[in-house]
From TrEMBL:
Feature: compositional bias, Polar residues: 78-91
UniProt keyword terms in alphabetical order: Nucleus
One Pfam family it belongs to: Zn_clus
The protein, known as: Zn(2)-C6 fungal-type domain-containing protein
Organism of provenance: Botrytis hyacinthi
Top-rank taxon: Eukaryota
Gene Ontology terms for molecular function: DNA-binding transcription factor activity, RNA polymerase II-specific; zinc ion binding
Region of interest called Disordered, as start-end residue ranges on this chain: 64-91
Domain Zn(2)-C6 fungal-type per the UniProt entry, residue ranges: 21-51
Amino acid sequence: MSDNITSKLKRSNTTGRSKYGCLTCRAKKVKCNERLPSCGRCERLKLDCQQPCSRLIPSVRERRRGAGPIKSRDPDWSPQSLSPALQVSEEQPQESEALLNHYLSGYDHGLAAASASSFSVGHPEGVSQNQAPIIEAGADTLLDPIAEWLLPDPQSLNVYTRTNYSPLFFEPLVIANILSTQERSLENGMSLNNDEELALTHYRTAFSLSQTTRDPQWSTPTLLLIHALKHSEMLLHLILAVSLHDMPSNPDIVSRLRQTGHKHYEKGTEQLMQALQCENPADHLAILAAFYCIHMYMSRSNGTIISKLDRLSLTAIVHLTKHNLIVPTHAQSSLANQRSIKSGAERSLIARIIMWLLKMDAQGSFLGCKPNLANHFQAHPDQLLAIQAESRLALQLNWGAEYPISQSIRDIESCLPVDMMSDMLMLCCKISEFSHKPPCTEADVMQKSLQKEFAALEIRFGAVFYYGSSDMTLQPAMKLNCANSATMFYALQIYFARCRSSPFGAESTTEIKTALSQLLRFAMYVSPAGSQQPVYEFQWSLFIAAIEINDMIHQEWLQGRITDHRLRKSLQGISTFKRNNLGIISFSKVKEIILAM
């Protein structure tokens, strides 16, 4: 009897299709022998053997700090991203497909056909001072003086500069030239070490989730990464700078990561300044994406300087208007305008990045920056409508035939909450302007105008509030986007009420109590028990609720869902200040604490 049981168990363990084989075999539901870099079946049938990312690098679970069920994790843990592996085995060289999957997320986007020849592994060399430099020079000596404003505050460099730093050895991995499937190609022979490889993985996963609710596999950040690898060394430098700075890791290697990131930032901004000096830059998409990456890098650096963010916003709008990149209305369109950008796919992606630059303006305006792009759209609302319409098909047009129908359905479902979010970004900039108005008749007029805008938004997007809280059977993504937009709406109402003389945490009016109650209600739909939503607009909404509310139970719930490192750290300082000041804090003090982080 025992022999029969043993034989059955043995058969059950050796038959059936593999759960860990290549994606090609798993798609056809056939057995895979799990051989790397190409399995036996794919090699025999001459198929494209797509290996899952988990077979090339440690799993997300293995690299994530505090691995395990969320309920069992330390409350101070933040699930932002992936930690770089400290050791990489040198026994198995990574082949062409393995590296392509490694850099571009392991998803089958059909990009292998776009690569020329193969990735090659460089020979080990000694690590010199040029490979992992110690940043000792002042910011004014790192770049041309004209571009000094692009550099973060020199004090922020001291946070991770250590004189006793001894760099670890990493075998360099050379990226082969990835030829474009479009009309032209750009040599991109950069050499990446292991930290930088993991930074690209972090960019298309954790960082992407902090910027958009779309699946990382089909998101705008992934499109920008592909564009950088194919066409733009400048953009790749800046993507690496943001990712290396944003990627949490243990304290022993954070210094190395941030120094490497800063060198990429220097190189990327240097190339950006050269591109901006051209009369007709060849790659407007890379330049606009570079503006966004620079904003992300500056806003993550210690001691954000408002004047530099102002200059960045101004540079972006000057470039957009100089090269007529803001989509013209039908009445203004001309043949010259249509020829200035290559294709509908590129135009739509540029429009999407312009909307992201508007998001950049809204985030900066909360800290006191001048929203130059938002001011332009406020004066030309027809252009904003044209940009919104053009950007809607960005993902469909740029992914092409491989874009799944399920994602197209998500695009259609997201139109209403995305349009509402765009209007709220403009409203956020107006509230920030209102917060600086001195008490006068003009301020009273603006206050009434903003109140009318809130009422109009609530009526126009009534369906968003309904679907965001409805128990109907809906697509989860639609309910998430609707609830996310509704949450920000009520956060803006609290911000509007507290941005002038009334401090956060003070005695509430009926309007503030209602807004706070509704904000918490929709936040619970977005982030139910045991889950977190890292997209920035939602994180900002939770932050506004947390600095307004004094109830400890809700405070704990909100703090447990704020994963943005800067907002989380700022909230700790704000909570300390409120405890020492009768539970209230002014908006100016809130900004002061955030800017100091």
